[in-house]
TrEMBL record:
CDD domains: SusD. Its main location: membrane. Transmembrane segments: none annotated. Residues 322-461 form the RagB/SusD domain. This is Starch-binding associating with outer membrane. GO terms for cellular component: cell outer membrane. It comes from the Bacteria. The lineage of its organism: Bacteria, Pseudomonadati, Bacteroidota, Chitinophagia, Chitinophagales. It comes from Chitinophaga arvensicola. Belongs to the SusD family. Residues 88-225 form the SusD-like N-terminal domain.
Amino acid sequence: MNKIYKFLRNGYLLLSVAISISSCKKFVEIDPPLTQLATASVFEEKYTAIAAVTGIYGAMYSMVYFNIYTGLSSDELTSYGYDLYPSLYQNALSAKNGGFLVWSNAYKYIYQANAAIEGLEHSNGIAANIKNQLLGEVRFIRAFWYFNLINLYGDVPLVTTTDYNVITKLPRSAKTDIYAQIINDLKAAQLLLGDGYVDSKNNSTSDRVRPTKWVATALLARAYLFNKDYNDAALQSTAIINNTATFQLNKDLNDVFLKNSTEAIWQLMPGNDALQTPEGSNFILDAVPTAVALSPQLLQAFEPNDERRKNWVDSIVVSGTAYYYPFKYKVKYGSSDLTEYSMVLRLAEQYLIRSEARIQLNDLRGGTADLDTIRTRAGLPGTTATTKADLLKAILHERQVELFTEGHRWIDLKKEALIDQVMTKVTPEKGGGKWQSYQQLYPIPTEDIQHSSNLKQNPGY
């Protein structure tokens, strides 16, 4: 938030947006403003408004680091020593060395979304259909980052303004209030966004990189599930699953993470011409790992004959030692022909959301059918679980082996109140000390505590 304060003092939507746009020209295809522009001016013209909004999530192409942080914190990844990775891996973060992690970027994106909302709502120079599309996109972005914030930090300040004097005095808001804001934003986004994907000129496109009504619906289903509103979670996920004209599970597991796969609900286009995706660059090994590799705990979680183990995990052997890595993305280095986009939301998760929601609603048959849809695609027989409790355990396991390194495991363990049970065993195995329950929340940056009169640090830090 300290970085946000700097933005606010100037009263501008700063060049951070323009920089992110220019770094992903293939995505935006519109030249960004070359000077600082007052927010009102940016949103009075169609193309600068589109560029400013698409630039926000254009800068989010490195979402892989969110997945690495949470994968190291949980039982998905092994650290081989890089910057803060050992502290994450050993669950030994401090306010000094780990405070920035997701917090600073999340509030930067939220601030930019708030600035866009204020600019768009007061704009008279943009056609209603484009204004609605952009407003829907930024309300989705705000909801997306608040979901991540509360699941990493607990109660957090609810910032819905760009007013510096207001923001610097905000205390933490309860998670219930944050979830209410998330749900409100996503329901609004559903109404504002269209059914189809559009490009940077608002023309129809096959690229699934700008939010649509379905993107908002996917996150809304997840938010309802985490908020224990199982009926609405099932309704939202069903709407996506039933849209078979747009979304279908890929039969071939190697097609899932291709750009514009039928399973993709929302992807991010790489923002660096030297890469295919940040995931491919960071995960695929061609030498002894210097950052991360897959953990023994994850490798042991796969059942025999699971096709995901065969297709989504690979290894190299160096001096007799095997190192295993995620192989969902197949290309490590860049080329002029992009074949993969970074996956953020996909259809398989919606089946698992609906499975859990149905089981919580005592529709065991329906929940089992959804679970088995994912298992069948992986080449596995139907689940042997029959009771509600066992089926919920089976879903958690399926999420572990289906969604690994996509940012879910850490927050899934917290949602199920299993994090203490799992990490008490895993943290010592990772070379850390004794697991302490407070470590399930990340620390807030010290500088933001110092700059905000009502912001308090998470206990233990």
